[in-house]
Amino acid sequence: MSELRQDPTTNDWIIVAKERTQRPVQFARTENRAPLPEHDPSCPFCPGNEARTPPEAWAYRTGRANEQGWWVRTIPNKFPALRPEGSLERRMENGLFRTMQGVGHHEVVIETPSHNTPIPFMPDGQVEEVVLMYRDRYLALRDDPRVKYLILFKNSGERAGTSLLHPHSQLVATPIVPPYIRRKHEVATQYFDNTGKCVYCEMRDEELRAGTRVVLETERFVVIHPFASRYPFETWILPKAHHPSFGQIAVPEAKEFARVLKATLLKLWKALNGPDYNYILHTIPLKDENEEYYLWHAQIIPRIAHMAGFEMGSGIYITTALPEETAEVMRKAEGE
Ligand SMILES: [Zn+2]
Ligand SMILES: [Zn+2]
Predict the structure, then answer these.
(1) 242 has catalytic annotation
(2) pTM for the complete prediction?
Protein backbone atom coordinates (compact mmCIF):
# COMPACT_ATOMS: atom_id res chain seq x y z
CA MET A 1 0.00 0.00 0.00
CA SER A 2 1.13 3.53 -0.63
CA GLU A 3 1.39 5.97 2.27
CA LEU A 4 0.39 9.61 2.61
CA ARG A 5 2.66 11.78 4.76
CA GLN A 6 2.04 15.35 5.89
CA ASP A 7 4.75 17.99 6.11
CA PRO A 8 4.19 19.79 9.46
CA THR A 9 5.82 22.97 8.09
CA THR A 10 3.44 23.42 5.14
CA ASN A 11 0.51 21.07 5.88
CA ASP A 12 1.10 19.67 2.37
CA TRP A 13 0.67 15.96 1.84
CA ILE A 14 2.87 13.71 -0.27
CA ILE A 15 2.37 10.15 -1.43
CA VAL A 16 5.11 7.59 -1.04
CA ALA A 17 4.38 5.10 -3.82
CA LYS A 18 5.73 2.09 -1.99
CA GLU A 19 5.04 -0.42 -4.81
CA ARG A 20 6.97 1.77 -7.18
CA THR A 21 9.80 2.59 -4.80
CA GLN A 22 13.15 2.54 -6.54
CA ARG A 23 16.40 1.59 -4.92
CA PRO A 24 18.36 4.79 -4.18
CA VAL A 25 21.12 3.76 -6.60
CA GLN A 26 18.61 3.86 -9.48
CA PHE A 27 18.39 7.66 -9.23
CA ALA A 28 22.05 8.21 -10.14
CA ARG A 29 23.05 9.75 -13.48
CA THR A 30 24.04 7.06 -15.92
CA GLU A 31 26.43 9.09 -18.08
CA ASN A 32 29.45 10.79 -16.58
CA ARG A 33 29.87 14.52 -17.09
CA ALA A 34 32.30 15.69 -19.78
CA PRO A 35 35.32 17.36 -18.15
CA LEU A 36 35.38 21.17 -18.38
CA PRO A 37 38.41 23.44 -18.86
CA GLU A 38 39.71 25.48 -15.90
CA HIS A 39 39.19 28.62 -18.03
CA ASP A 40 36.83 29.12 -20.99
CA PRO A 41 37.56 32.24 -23.11
CA SER A 42 33.93 32.33 -24.33
CA CYS A 43 32.45 32.31 -20.77
CA PRO A 44 31.26 35.77 -19.57
CA PHE A 45 31.94 34.79 -15.93
CA CYS A 46 35.57 33.75 -16.48
CA PRO A 47 38.38 36.16 -15.46
CA GLY A 48 39.40 38.48 -18.31
CA ASN A 49 35.79 38.83 -19.51
CA GLU A 50 34.66 41.26 -16.77
CA ALA A 51 33.69 43.85 -19.43
CA ARG A 52 31.11 41.43 -20.84
CA THR A 53 28.97 41.58 -17.67
CA PRO A 54 27.14 44.58 -16.15
CA PRO A 55 29.44 46.53 -13.76
CA GLU A 56 29.93 44.64 -10.51
CA ALA A 57 27.82 45.42 -7.44
CA TRP A 58 30.35 44.01 -4.99
CA ALA A 59 33.46 41.85 -5.18
CA TYR A 60 36.08 40.30 -2.91
CA ARG A 61 39.16 41.32 -4.79
CA THR A 62 42.53 42.94 -5.19
CA GLY A 63 42.92 45.47 -8.00
CA ARG A 64 40.30 47.67 -9.60
CA ALA A 65 36.58 47.03 -10.05
CA ASN A 66 35.58 45.18 -13.20
CA GLU A 67 39.08 43.89 -13.82
CA GLN A 68 40.73 40.63 -12.83
CA GLY A 69 41.85 40.00 -9.23
CA TRP A 70 38.50 38.93 -7.69
CA TRP A 71 37.72 35.64 -5.99
CA VAL A 72 33.95 36.13 -5.53
CA ARG A 73 32.12 38.66 -7.73
CA THR A 74 28.51 39.89 -7.64
CA ILE A 75 26.96 41.51 -10.71
CA PRO A 76 23.45 42.62 -11.64
CA ASN A 77 21.81 39.96 -13.84
CA LYS A 78 22.14 40.96 -17.52
CA PHE A 79 18.53 39.88 -18.14
CA PRO A 80 16.93 40.70 -14.77
CA ALA A 81 13.50 39.54 -13.67
CA LEU A 82 13.26 42.75 -11.59
CA ARG A 83 15.08 46.12 -11.78
CA PRO A 84 15.89 48.77 -9.15
CA GLU A 85 13.90 51.55 -10.90
CA GLY A 86 10.15 52.10 -10.50
CA SER A 87 7.31 52.35 -8.01
CA LEU A 88 5.30 49.91 -5.93
CA GLU A 89 1.96 51.27 -7.07
CA ARG A 90 -0.58 48.63 -8.05
CA ARG A 91 -2.73 49.27 -11.12
CA MET A 92 -5.97 47.62 -12.18
CA GLU A 93 -6.90 46.69 -15.72
CA ASN A 94 -10.63 46.15 -16.38
CA GLY A 95 -11.30 46.07 -12.66
CA LEU A 96 -9.91 42.54 -12.23
CA PHE A 97 -6.38 42.24 -13.52
CA ARG A 98 -3.77 43.72 -11.18
CA THR A 99 -0.29 44.79 -12.30
CA MET A 100 2.71 46.59 -10.86
CA GLN A 101 6.14 47.54 -12.14
CA GLY A 102 8.91 44.95 -11.95
CA VAL A 103 10.79 46.69 -9.13
CA GLY A 104 13.48 44.91 -7.17
CA HIS A 105 16.96 43.48 -7.58
CA HIS A 106 18.31 40.50 -9.43
CA GLU A 107 21.95 39.69 -8.85
CA VAL A 108 24.33 36.91 -9.83
CA VAL A 109 27.07 35.74 -7.47
CA ILE A 110 30.00 34.33 -9.46
CA GLU A 111 31.35 31.90 -6.89
CA THR A 112 34.88 31.39 -8.15
CA PRO A 113 37.22 32.45 -10.96
CA SER A 114 37.61 28.75 -11.81
CA HIS A 115 35.26 27.67 -14.61
CA ASN A 116 35.31 24.01 -13.57
CA THR A 117 35.26 24.04 -9.74
CA PRO A 118 31.73 23.76 -8.33
CA ILE A 119 31.09 24.03 -4.57
CA PRO A 120 31.60 20.32 -3.74
CA PHE A 121 35.18 20.54 -5.00
CA MET A 122 36.16 24.05 -3.81
CA PRO A 123 38.57 24.52 -0.91
CA ASP A 124 36.60 25.16 2.34
CA GLY A 125 37.86 28.75 2.47
CA GLN A 126 36.38 29.54 -0.95
CA VAL A 127 32.92 28.19 -0.01
CA GLU A 128 33.10 30.30 3.15
CA GLU A 129 33.73 33.38 1.02
CA VAL A 130 30.71 32.51 -1.16
CA VAL A 131 28.43 32.26 1.89
CA LEU A 132 29.86 35.49 3.34
CA MET A 133 29.05 37.14 -0.01
CA TYR A 134 25.45 35.86 0.26
CA ARG A 135 25.27 37.43 3.69
CA ASP A 136 26.82 40.73 2.53
CA ARG A 137 24.42 41.06 -0.37
CA TYR A 138 21.45 40.09 1.80
CA LEU A 139 22.37 42.84 4.25
CA ALA A 140 22.96 45.37 1.44
CA LEU A 141 19.67 44.75 -0.41
CA ARG A 142 17.54 44.70 2.72
CA ASP A 143 18.29 48.42 3.10
CA ASP A 144 16.09 49.17 0.08
CA PRO A 145 12.71 49.97 1.73
CA ARG A 146 10.84 48.66 -1.33
CA VAL A 147 12.26 45.17 -0.83
CA LYS A 148 9.93 42.83 1.06
CA TYR A 149 11.61 39.47 0.59
CA LEU A 150 14.97 38.06 -0.52
CA ILE A 151 15.38 34.73 -2.26
CA LEU A 152 18.84 33.24 -2.62
CA PHE A 153 19.04 30.25 -4.91
CA LYS A 154 21.18 28.25 -7.21
CA ASN A 155 20.36 26.52 -10.47
CA SER A 156 23.02 23.96 -11.29
CA GLY A 157 22.72 22.19 -14.63
CA GLU A 158 20.22 22.28 -17.49
CA ARG A 159 17.53 20.28 -15.71
CA ALA A 160 17.75 22.85 -12.89
CA GLY A 161 17.22 25.77 -15.27
CA THR A 162 20.63 27.00 -16.37
CA SER A 163 22.91 26.42 -19.32
CA LEU A 164 25.71 28.60 -17.89
CA LEU A 165 28.25 26.13 -16.54
CA HIS A 166 30.44 28.56 -14.58
CA PRO A 167 29.55 28.13 -10.86
CA HIS A 168 27.15 30.87 -9.83
CA SER A 169 24.10 31.53 -7.70
CA GLN A 170 21.43 34.23 -7.71
CA LEU A 171 19.70 36.63 -5.39
CA VAL A 172 16.30 38.13 -6.17
CA ALA A 173 14.84 40.87 -3.98
CA THR A 174 11.08 41.08 -4.52
CA PRO A 175 8.70 44.04 -3.93
CA ILE A 176 6.05 41.66 -2.57
CA VAL A 177 6.12 38.73 -0.18
CA PRO A 178 5.44 35.79 -2.54
CA PRO A 179 2.10 34.07 -1.69
CA TYR A 180 3.82 30.67 -1.51
CA ILE A 181 6.17 32.06 1.15
CA ARG A 182 3.26 33.67 3.00
CA ARG A 183 1.61 30.26 3.23
CA LYS A 184 4.74 28.62 4.61
CA HIS A 185 4.95 31.40 7.19
CA GLU A 186 1.25 31.18 8.01
CA VAL A 187 1.62 27.52 8.96
CA ALA A 188 4.63 28.37 11.12
CA THR A 189 2.85 31.35 12.71
CA GLN A 190 -0.19 29.28 13.58
CA TYR A 191 2.01 26.57 15.09
CA PHE A 192 3.79 29.19 17.14
CA ASP A 193 0.52 30.78 18.30
CA ASN A 194 -0.82 27.37 19.36
CA THR A 195 2.27 25.98 21.06
CA GLY A 196 4.67 28.87 21.71
CA LYS A 197 7.28 26.92 19.76
CA CYS A 198 8.91 27.11 16.34
CA VAL A 199 7.77 24.25 14.09
CA TYR A 200 11.16 24.04 12.35
CA CYS A 201 13.09 23.65 15.61
CA GLU A 202 10.54 21.03 16.70
CA MET A 203 10.93 19.18 13.41
CA ARG A 204 14.73 19.30 13.59
CA ASP A 205 14.73 17.94 17.14
CA GLU A 206 12.22 15.22 16.25
CA GLU A 207 14.34 14.16 13.25
CA LEU A 208 17.38 14.04 15.54
CA ARG A 209 15.49 11.82 18.00
CA ALA A 210 14.28 9.50 15.21
CA GLY A 211 17.73 9.46 13.62
CA THR A 212 16.74 7.47 10.52
CA ARG A 213 16.51 10.47 8.22
CA VAL A 214 19.56 12.35 9.52
CA VAL A 215 22.36 12.72 6.96
CA LEU A 216 24.85 14.75 8.96
CA GLU A 217 25.07 16.57 12.28
CA THR A 218 27.67 19.17 13.23
CA GLU A 219 28.05 21.55 16.17
CA ARG A 220 25.68 24.11 14.65
CA PHE A 221 23.74 22.29 11.89
CA VAL A 222 21.60 19.25 11.13
CA VAL A 223 21.13 17.83 7.61
CA ILE A 224 18.05 15.67 6.97
CA HIS A 225 15.91 14.04 4.31
CA PRO A 226 12.53 15.24 5.61
CA PHE A 227 9.79 12.80 6.67
CA ALA A 228 7.47 14.16 3.93
CA SER A 229 10.08 14.76 1.20
CA ARG A 230 8.47 15.88 -2.04
CA TYR A 231 11.35 14.72 -4.22
CA PRO A 232 13.79 11.78 -4.02
CA PHE A 233 16.95 12.91 -2.17
CA GLU A 234 15.37 16.27 -1.16
CA THR A 235 17.78 17.53 1.50
CA TRP A 236 17.35 20.21 4.18
CA ILE A 237 20.04 21.95 6.20
CA LEU A 238 18.67 23.31 9.50
CA PRO A 239 20.66 25.46 11.94
CA LYS A 240 20.58 24.56 15.63
CA ALA A 241 20.50 28.20 16.75
CA HIS A 242 17.09 29.74 16.32
CA HIS A 243 17.58 32.63 13.88
CA PRO A 244 14.51 33.46 11.78
CA SER A 245 16.54 35.32 9.15
CA PHE A 246 19.61 34.27 7.18
CA GLY A 247 20.76 37.90 7.50
CA GLN A 248 21.05 37.46 11.29
CA ILE A 249 23.69 34.76 11.27
CA ALA A 250 27.11 35.59 12.67
CA VAL A 251 30.33 35.01 10.74
CA PRO A 252 31.32 31.75 12.54
CA GLU A 253 27.87 30.30 11.81
CA ALA A 254 28.12 31.41 8.17
CA LYS A 255 31.48 29.66 7.86
CA GLU A 256 30.22 26.44 9.40
CA PHE A 257 27.17 26.58 7.11
CA ALA A 258 29.58 26.81 4.16
CA ARG A 259 31.39 23.64 5.24
CA VAL A 260 28.11 21.79 5.81
CA LEU A 261 26.76 22.94 2.43
CA LYS A 262 29.91 21.73 0.71
CA ALA A 263 29.89 18.36 2.50
CA THR A 264 26.19 17.86 1.70
CA LEU A 265 26.62 18.73 -1.98
CA LEU A 266 29.63 16.43 -2.20
CA LYS A 267 27.60 13.58 -0.70
CA LEU A 268 24.84 14.25 -3.25
CA TRP A 269 27.43 14.31 -6.02
CA LYS A 270 28.82 10.95 -4.93
CA ALA A 271 25.42 9.35 -4.30
CA LEU A 272 23.87 10.47 -7.61
CA ASN A 273 26.90 10.86 -9.90
CA GLY A 274 26.84 14.65 -10.22
CA PRO A 275 23.11 15.44 -10.48
CA ASP A 276 21.63 18.72 -11.66
CA TYR A 277 20.13 20.43 -8.62
CA ASN A 278 18.60 23.58 -7.16
CA TYR A 279 19.09 24.98 -3.73
CA ILE A 280 17.10 27.67 -2.01
CA LEU A 281 17.78 29.58 1.19
CA HIS A 282 14.46 30.04 2.96
CA THR A 283 14.27 33.04 5.26
CA ILE A 284 11.68 35.32 6.88
CA PRO A 285 10.17 38.44 5.25
CA LEU A 286 12.30 41.49 6.13
CA LYS A 287 9.62 43.12 8.30
CA ASP A 288 9.34 39.96 10.44
CA GLU A 289 13.06 39.47 11.11
CA ASN A 290 12.57 39.71 14.87
CA GLU A 291 9.57 37.37 15.04
CA GLU A 292 10.16 33.99 16.63
CA TYR A 293 7.96 31.71 14.53
CA TYR A 294 10.44 30.89 11.77
CA LEU A 295 13.86 29.31 11.30
CA TRP A 296 15.94 30.02 8.20
CA HIS A 297 17.05 26.86 6.39
CA ALA A 298 18.40 25.58 3.10
CA GLN A 299 16.59 23.17 0.80
CA ILE A 300 18.47 21.22 -1.88
CA ILE A 301 16.49 19.48 -4.62
CA PRO A 302 18.30 17.18 -7.06
CA ARG A 303 16.48 17.33 -10.40
CA ILE A 304 16.02 13.63 -10.90
CA ALA A 305 12.21 13.41 -10.93
CA HIS A 306 9.72 15.37 -13.02
CA MET A 307 6.57 17.12 -11.92
CA ALA A 308 3.60 15.58 -13.77
CA GLY A 309 -0.11 16.30 -14.20
CA PHE A 310 -1.17 14.92 -10.84
CA GLU A 311 1.36 17.10 -8.97
CA MET A 312 0.38 20.21 -11.00
CA GLY A 313 -3.32 19.56 -10.47
CA SER A 314 -3.27 18.67 -6.79
CA GLY A 315 -0.09 20.03 -5.23
CA ILE A 316 0.39 16.50 -3.88
CA TYR A 317 3.75 15.09 -4.89
CA ILE A 318 4.25 11.40 -5.51
CA THR A 319 7.71 10.19 -4.60
CA THR A 320 9.22 6.83 -5.42
CA ALA A 321 11.96 7.06 -2.81
CA LEU A 322 11.85 6.57 0.94
CA PRO A 323 13.74 9.32 2.79
CA GLU A 324 14.81 6.71 5.37
CA GLU A 325 16.63 4.81 2.59
CA THR A 326 18.07 7.80 0.74
CA ALA A 327 19.35 9.33 4.00
CA GLU A 328 21.24 6.13 4.70
CA VAL A 329 22.87 6.29 1.26
CA MET A 330 23.82 9.93 1.95
CA ARG A 331 25.26 9.08 5.38
CA LYS A 332 27.57 6.53 3.77
CA ALA A 333 28.58 8.75 0.82
CA GLU A 334 31.90 10.52 1.15
CA GLY A 335 31.47 14.15 2.22
CA GLU A 336 35.01 15.44 2.53
ZN1 LIG B 1 33.70 30.48 -16.86
ZN1 LIG C 1 13.20 27.71 15.69
Answers:
(1) no
(2) 0.96
